[in-house]
């Protein structure tokens, strides 16, 4: 019996030790974590821009093709601009003429000189009357005084004409700016940096103002979309770090970013809401529409 009891005691201790070990392991595996995992997330474009023409015209050249990298202000499509160039030449000629007119002060200088002569004439007439009474009649003095007034008014008119000429020059300068803008609009440029995804025009084609010519996209940054339980999570997630791992990729190939949007519209049946994260994709290795796993840390 003692030997049997000893064997039973050994078995009991072994079982207890094994059970204790399994309980520790289970507790380690079940360590609490506030990470939120979205298994069915997908990337989408943040920047997807259609470049349109601001004016109507005939396409003279298409300067890009699908796959080209473009910078902001890169010329994409050129429209025939002969008429716009002539309008600019005409506007500049009008500006030159207006500037010559505004700089022409001949009339002002002539009026000023005339006033000096008339005032001198008036002074001499008065001196003559002081020396010899009645040498210049009152009627003649009135005529001279009138001529003095006319000369003074001529100065005012000359200055007024110069102001009008200066205003006309400003107007012509505005006309030149408008003509230059119209000419520039015949060169349709990208407003953003990215990759040409679609070219929807050909040389010789007529396009109306507002027609979409080229689509430019950017893969950096990307948006990652997914759904979460809106009854448990909400806008408090905004700003939290995320890690997106494309399907079939390793953790080392994950993209990182932050939650940028959590919808407040719950699905009436599932209670889910849409969540967006913005992640960096500097080398563009992950494309739009890529499925994967999103972890909200």
From TrEMBL:
Keywords from the UniProt entry: Signal, Transport
Highest taxon, organism lineage: Bacteria
One GO term (biological process): copper ion export
Record keyword Nucleotide-binding present: no
InterPro entries hit by this protein: MFP_Cation_Efflux
Gene3D superfamilies per UniProt: 2.40.30.170, 2.40.50.100, Helix hairpin bin
Signal peptide range in chain numbering: 1-26
GO CC terms, sorted: cell envelope
Keyword NAD annotated: no
PANTHER family xref list: CATION EFFLUX SYSTEM PROTEIN CUSB, SLR6042 PROTEIN
Protein name: Putative efflux pump membrane fusion protein
Organism: Stieleria maiorica
